[in-house]
Amino acid sequence: MADPEHVTAADIEVRTPWVAPAKWDAAVEPETAALVARDADRDAEQVVEAWVRKGSELTQRTKRSSLASIARVLGDDIAPEHVLWHRVGPAEAGVLRFEIAARYTPSTARKLVSALRGVIRQAWVLGLLDGETKDRALVELEETIRGSRLPKGRQVPIGEIRAIFEAAATDQTPAGRRDAAILALLMAGLRRSEVAGVLVEQLDREAWTLRVIGKGNKERLVHLAPGSIEALRAYLELRGDVPGPIVQQVTRRSRRRDSGGRLRPGTGITGQTVENVLSDLCERAHVPDIDPHDLRRTLISTMLNDTDIATVASLVGHASVTTTQRYDRRPDRARRDAMARQLVPYVSPTRAARSEG
Predict the structure, then answer these.
(1) Catalytic residue among 64, 103, 215, 233
(2) Is 191 considered catalytic here?
(3) What is the pLDDT of residues 170-209, one digit of tens each?
(4) Which of 72, 296, 297, 329 is catalytic?
(5) Is 327 assigned a catalytic role?
(6) Residue 211 bears catalytic tag
(7) Residue percentage of the chain with pLDDT more than 90
(8) If you average pLDDT over residues 260-277, what whole number do you get?
(9) Given the residues 121, 293, 326, 330, the one annotated as active site
(10) pLDDT (tens digit, 9 = 90+) per residue, 60-88?
(11) Which of 191, 192, 239, 329 is catalytic?
């Protein structure tokens, strides 16, 4: 097996003409240059589309993002359609794994290596890569990339959450109620893509529960808190019962204070809109920027104070309680207090001198 740190050009057969992009990263091993095509390659596009289309819309976006991140290892300006995935042999796979591990955090690197294995297998399924080359390339990607980082995100203080709800309430147009409904759904543990995609037909207004289809095309039943119910009820009074996405677009605002902010029936929003709305509310409320996922982390962290982890995992759609544990952003007080109770019989030099005297 070739050592990724010492692979030479002789180890890899150069099988396609290649022109370095304008912003070529000099730190990248030049041996992977054989994987970059001058123009979008039809076979590469076929591999990408065949692999990406397996899964939900959210999964497809995640897959495309992963391939784009791998492509950036080859050069800042390289698109996935310019990467000859069907020509990744064992030597190229080894180099890519090494560069991915060096560039990205361990958890991201593991996700990207998994994506690389997926497109290699897809190239073989399409008959664009022979079985022996596929097997040898996968062997190079077998070893787990080890390591971890402190978790991202934070538990948002209740004062900040109240402030952004107040910012939404000051908007007297329908957009204000719409934005409060977005917050209510985020506070119910929905991901931004789920907020954008959930339909009014999935809402039970007697039990006030939502049937949400999340990652992996898995459906879960979401129970709404009293405050979320109030926010949704106020919004739905304006929205009505028209089938389609619960959260609708609003008309653009002009310089006139009383214009814009009206609901657009039959329309839906995107996950990016959810992020933009939250960012705007934070600015208006004069609180630090809040990532939509921080509200999900906050819900999980709060519920873990008095709810067993298995129940919390089922409420937020986690297949494993291990994933739920990684969302815990409770203050470090419990760990700090636990250490404070430990006895360490340190004796200072001053005290020792007094004892000897």
Answers:
(1) 215
(2) yes
(3) 999 999 999 999 999 999 999 999 999 999 999 999 999 9
(4) 296
(5) yes
(6) no
(7) 54
(8) 92
(9) 293
(10) 888 999 999 999 988 878 888 889 999 99
(11) 191
Quickly tell me which residue has 């991202």 as its tokens: 152
